[in-house]
Amino acid sequence: MSKQILVTGGTGYIGSHTVVELQNEGFDVVVVDDLSNSSIEVLDAIEKITGKRPAFEKFNLTDQEKTNAFFEKYRRIEAIVHFAAYKAVGESVEKPLEYYHNNLVSLMNLLGSMRKHKIPYMVFSSSCTVYGQPEKLPVTEDTPRKPAESPYGNTKAVSEDIMRDFARATEGINCIALRYFNPIGAHPSALIGELPVGVPNNLVPFITQTAAGLRDELKIFGDDYNTPDGTAIRDYINVVDLAKAHVVAINRLLNNKQKASYEFFNVGTGEGYSVMQLVKAFIKATGVELKYSVVGRRAGDIEKYGPIPRMRIMNWAGRLRKHSKKH
Ligand code: UFG
Question: Hey, which of 83, 190, 274, 275 has its CA 20 to 30 A from 32?
Fold first, then answer.
């Protein structure tokens, strides 16, 4: 019988792509999501892509009673991939208590259930945000963590600490945190993708919704950063590659390959692109004239994560020089 994996937040952006990859690998997936930032139709899409509909339960994992009842019902779960969390950086500054409550209580309920029901493994959705603005690029696992820039970021740092301490203290519990850089893109079927409820906070869904006419124009947050074109730089990773990283982490745990009860890994490409480069690449690839304007920096934003390979900086600087001569 195939191994059963719980994916919390499994109808969300990274969650849904991970459910697809886990099912493609033959795992039996149960999804828990409260649908606060995703839609139930995602399950139809997953079924279309993989030929299999994951089991689904709708509730919020901060609810201890519902969480208990869930684990009483699903007794075959061997590992958890935990995505379910609030993730809007700006909103977290406005509503810190809601963010700490939702993101931390759900994690602790899950860890308590792991101990109670002898579920040994968890893969946790963490973020490069735990590094703050690093002094040196590329960011590696040896890069020191810095105080978070937002309550959202702090929930990730504190969650990591809770998991580390719990895994160390509890015989038989092993956890891996994956610190993602910026996931973008969609499954090649285009049946699932990044579909947040309401106005998107993140760059790529804002670009695509502007191109589709749902938003008036894209606002580029700041062009006065210390980068070749002045816009901020991120390390963008394809969401399907990121989803596959979760399958690797799950297999590492199931096959007892981990070197410590708590491990963390960065997941990115190791290369950076600026906001402006991304916008230009979108326009070039789609032929859609995207309306955009530059506004002030967004509070809490980091200047750069990904290093830009030297050759690319030289070419790029050359192009910028040519461009400025023309004007
Ligand atoms: N940006 C714009 N205009 C927009 C949206 C974003 O210019 O409308 C810029 C941002 O200023 C930033 C870059 O595009 O320079 C990427 O921004 P995103 O919001 O897409 O992602 P972040 O790099 O801010 O990532 C943050 C956290 C992650 C978290 C992610 C998801 O650092 O940990 O948001 O919410 F996972």
Answer: 190
